[in-house]
Amino acid sequence: MNRVIMFHTIRDKDWFERVVLLLGKKYKFVSADDVEDYYYKSKNLKNACLLTVDDGDLTSFEVIYPVLKKHNVPGVFFVSPKISRRDGMLNFWFQEIENCDKDKLLSYFKETSNRGIRSLSLNRATFNDMPVDEIIERIEEYKFKNNISPLPPQNMNEEHIKLIDAEGLVKIGAHTMTHPFLSYETDERSKSEIKDSLLDLENMLGHPIKYFAYPNGLPNEDFGQREIDILKKTKCRIAFSTQYKNFSKRDNPYSIPRFGVTYGNENFIMMKLLLGKYYPKIKKIITALG
Ligand SMILES: [Zn+2]
């Protein structure tokens, strides 16, 4: 069984270190290059595990990266160059949502849009086809009208990303510019979100970017053949979805599935799936942390 695991924000270093150590007992950690070679050069992988982190918030640098370095575990961080350059946007729109009173913001979305929005969870269905520019505009209007002070930058900046890239253990991959639900965007916008994020990072780091992760990431929902075809014409070699299963040769290299692991409520089931007989151990750790 070969697996890619996806993390987001991790605030608890001890928890993350224990998870890494336990995963290391069950799997052999591999790099993104190994997974690339698995798909393109018939490299054999057995019980392989690639660690990936989406969005690149500051905990990627302050919590996750030091643990990976300490144990010499490779990985990939998927980031937006627009966000890291603080280029007109300091934070992802879903981070701004967390900074607002969600009930009030939801009412504002309902008042100002006839799309029948039911909630503001990070889930494509709840936004009913709303393009990302409209989501961002609504949030900005709401913040302005309610005098909500700006959220300080939550994500890694250019310097953090350059340092990680230079050290080489963890690779940098692209994650679009503004984190849209790509399937809601026009052909042109979907293309620019993908290509610009790859090219901007290439310019920043001085080498081609070979890895990409789709925002939200469910195949045929959040992205589709259109996005795969866009990526195939770039220097990107492998791309990751959030389809919850092992990866195998049967996958399209531009739609490699991943297991999401979040510190919080869903941990128990996911860790059980991932860790098998190590599960009781980790359950104790999680329970102790409350
Ligand atoms: Zn993301």
How would you portray this structure in words?
This protein is an alpha/beta fold. The protein has 2 domains: 219 residues, TIM Barrel; 53 residues. Strands 1, 2, 3, 4, 5 and 8 form a 6-stranded parallel β-sheet that branches. Strands 6-7 form a two-stranded parallel sheet. Strand 6, helix 10 and strand 7 form a beta-alpha-beta unit. Helix 1 packs across helix 3 and helix 1 packs antiparallel against helix 12. The structure holds zinc ion. The site of zinc ion has 5 residues, from loops.
Write the layout of secondary structure elements.
Elements: E1 3-7, H1 13-26, E2 28-29, H2 32-40, E3 48-54, H3 58-70, E4 75-79, H4 81-84, H5 93-98, H6 102-112, H7 132-145, H8 158-167, E5 170-174, H9 187-205, E6 211-213, H10 225-232, E7 238-240, E8 259-260, H11 267-275, H12 279-289
Helix pairs in contact: 1-3, 1-12, 9-10, 11-12
Zinc ion (ZN) binds at residues 54-55, 175, 179, 215.
Features:
binds zinc ion, 11% strand, two-stranded parallel ribbon, alpha/beta, 12 helices, 290 residues
